[in-house]
Design brief:
With 208 residues, this protein is an alpha+beta fold. It is built from 4 helices and 9 strands. Strands 1, 2, 3, 4, 5, 6, 7, 8 and 9 form a 9-stranded antiparallel sheet that branches. The relative contact order is 0.24. The structure holds a DNA duplex (13 and 13 nucleotides).
DNA sequence: CGTTCGATGCACT
DNA sequence: GTGCATCGAACGT
């Protein structure tokens, strides 16, 4: 296996769908005083521009969505449903608001740290496959909160690395959990990964 | 196995 | 006041 190489800022500057697909197989790493936790990205969704009604940029620039309008390679973290943090990688040049939502990881390092974080609040720690399954769960497992909002994914405690692994097969489907913008097939995942969110039996694997 | 529904905080109208 | 880029417990089949 090649040495881990942190993705450079230029990686994120391209078209969002291209970056989204390229992120599958890469490794999200969060280094904290409590330890390092990481996982292989196996599911993503693209949110592209003010014309995408599901994108946070749809209402135009606001205080919350400002990172989307900034330079690529920045983490955009926000609180969803009052209790879950969701993490995105900002894409495309500054002024073009778009990002890739990270929806699921296959845990690689810091499994015990992930279990402890997921078990907070008197819950029982889930199985390894479920530790980072779902966008709210992976941020919980990696300890990602608003404190990581706006961090540089190419130069900070929160990184994405290329470890030389390329998914054998990926699939594009409609995005999950939306009431608008349902027409776009902007969700991509690695075929066969047990960490992909959604009902396992409903992850129908059609050809690309 | 499946579906429904409450929790919970804040950005935005 | 309304509506979320969610999760998991509770309940029905």
């Amino acid at each position: 296996m090649p040495a881990p190489r942190t993705l450079r800022q230029s990686f994120y500057a391209g078209p969002t769908l291209t970056v989204a697909e390229a992120l599958l197989g890469k490794v999200l790493v969060h280094r904290t005083p409590a330890g390092t936790a990481s996982g292989r990205i196996v599911e993503v969704e693209a949110y592209i521009g003010e014309d995408d009604p599901a994108c946070h940029a749809a209402p135009g620039p606001t205080a919350r969505n400002e990172p989307l309008y900034g330079p690529p390679g920045i983490a955009y973290v926000y609180l969803n449903y009052g209790m879950h943090y969701l993490v995105n990688a900002v894409t495309e040049p500054a002024g073009s608001p778009a990002a890739v939502l990270l929806r699921a990881l296959e845990p690689l390092e810091g499994l015990d740290l992930m279990r402890r974080r997921r078990a907070l609040g008197g819950r029982q720690a889930p199985s390894d496959d479920d530790l980072c399954r779902g966008p709210g769960n992976l941020t919980r497992a990696l300890g990602i909160t608003l404190a990581q909002n706006r961090m540089r994914l190419y130069d900070s405690e929160l990184l994405i690395q290329d470890r030389g692994e390329v998914p054998k097969a990926i699939v594009w489907t409609t995005r999950i959990g939306l009431t608008v913008g349902v027409d776009h097939q902007w969700r991509a995942y690695v075929v066969g990964s047990t960490a992909v969110s959604g009902r396992r039996t409903k992850n129908v694997e059609r050809g690309t």
